[in-house]
């Protein structure tokens, strides 16, 4: 196989946008995916894209990523807004962060939230923080659009392509079937699958905890509102999924030895826990019927922040990992920043903050998932 200037491993949101920005910068880029584009964790996410995060750098990355989606794949962006239901004291902190980042928002009083979201039990000390420019990303439509744009930029896309090994010194990826792919630079954007490939190749034991995220689908007797909501105290998000279906999740994690161990269906413990939380917070729980659910594989670093930049000791290898289930919201901007680093133009703030070198002396994997995306 003819060599390439930049090989991107992983055809999810992060890998696809990294390849896109590399091609825009003039790299001869190739994108490799073991399944089809978007068939991994990206294709199984809830699709919620909000700027209501906790860390200023994450808010900025999410804001930039929204702009990227609207520019590159506008047909996949459904503007819905986003509503966080939170204690009044908390709203004073969260809105200050939004204000500093230039995010449009509105604080809804307790009565306004109760009148608008009348199907949720609002506690008397809770208010709403509404960000009208937030959106839901139609993931099923995103990847066909991205594939068309990538091919238009000259990116070669290899789907159903398994990478069996890596020689970092000779700069070669070994593919199932005996083919070799020489490269100048390689970006490993395969999420939870990075650890296995880089570890087997003797490059780096990526210090991440691999885990399964879970989501449930409920059939609802009445039509569901468009705006996704997050209830801070219950740590539960909900969004419309069809006219009378509701997706519900809360970040409940199942620790995995490898991505291949991910169960195909949500666990009984998760169903019971989320069912109890839903029962406590919806006005008429008898109107909700569990209709399905699924799982996806995520990874988390020892400090809960992403791992982005040069693989320690290997100047031609780069990694994006540890996005903790928030790759959809931050991935496009992070991919853009990494391309800026590789092209030698600058070292963006995200690269400085998420540099893999901070874990150069770390051994093993984290014990638990560190949640940095909500206040409680």
Task: Describe how the helices and strands are arranged.
Layout: E1 4-9, H1 13-24, E2 29-32, E3 48-49, H2 56-72, E4 77-79, E5 82-87, H3 88-100, E6 106-108, H4 110-116, E7 126-131, E8 135-137, H5 139-152, E9 156-158, E10 163-167, E11 172-175, E12 180-188, H6 194-200, E13 209-220, E14 229-231, E15 236-240, E16 245-249, E17 254-255, H7 268-281, E18 288-300, E19 307-310, E20 317-321, H8 327-342, H9 349-353
Parallel strand pairs: 1-2, 1-12, 2-9, 5-14, 12-20
Antiparallel strand pairs: 3-8, 4-8, 5-7, 6-7, 10-11, 11-12, 13-16, 13-17, 13-18, 14-15, 15-16, 19-20
Helix pairs in contact: 1-5, 1-8, 2-8
Describe the structure.
- By secondary structure, the protein is α+β, with helices and mostly antiparallel strands.
- The mean pLDDT is 95.
- β1 (4-9), α1 and β2 form a beta-alpha-beta unit.
- Strands 5, 6, 7, 13, 14, 15, 16, 17 and 18 form a 9-stranded mixed β-sheet that branches. Strands 1, 2, 9, 10, 11, 12, 19 and 20 form an 8-stranded mixed β-sheet that branches. Strands 3-8-4 form a 3-stranded antiparallel β-sheet, covered by helices on one side.
- The chain has 3 domains: 1-77 and 135-208 and 302-376, 3-Layer(bba) Sandwich (FAD/NAD(P)-binding domain), CATH 3.50.50.60; 82-132, no CATH class; 209-300, 2-Layer Sandwich (D-Amino Acid Oxidase, Chain A, domain 2).
- It has 9 helices and 20 strands.
- 28% of the residues lie in helices and 27% in strands.
- α1 (13-24) runs parallel beside α5, α1 packs parallel to α8 (327-342) and α2 packs across α8.
